[in-house]
Amino acid sequence: MRGPRTDDLTVSRTVGANVATLRTLHGWSQRALARQTEITGKPVGFSTICRMERASDPEASPVAVYVDDVVSLATALGVTPQRLITAPNCRACMDNPPAGFACRTCGAEA
């Protein structure tokens, strides 16, 4: 017997979008992030990261995200798992502009 079907995994889409944004802020490719997870915790494969990020597009099919992967990615990106599963108010600075700077998009200051 199959479980209930869901057409939209909102938290999974949020994780994918947050991973893509934070990865870009670090200046890492998807492969570099995958290598970083090998160093800091449970390895998350390049193809898994690609699927997560691709699924952040509302037109793409949703992809379920494993909690262990979220924890590993959060560690590699230097954020908490909560940060990856929560949609930020501002995608430009991820609600956390660098010290001494203000976000040009939302005006938030560090």
The total count of strands amounts to: 0
The helix content, as a percent range, equals 40-55%
Outline type = globular
Major pleated sheet: none
Mean pLDDT: 87
Estimate the strand proportion.
under 5%
Which spans have pLDDT < 50 for at least 5 consecutive residues? 1-7
Q: Give the distance, in angstroms, between the N- and C-terminal Cα atoms.
A: 51 Å
The quaternary state of the protein chains shown equals single chain
Number of distinct helices: 5
SSE pattern, N- to C-terminal: HHHHH
Give the C-alpha Rg: 15 Å
* Category by helix and strand content: mainly alpha
Please write out the topology.
Blueprint: H1 10-26, H2 30-40, H3 46-54, H4 67-77, H5 81-85
Structural account:
The protein is mainly α and 110 residues long. The chain contains five helices and no strands. Helix 1 crosses helix 3 and helix 1 packs parallel to helix 4. Residues 1-7 have low confidence and may be disordered.
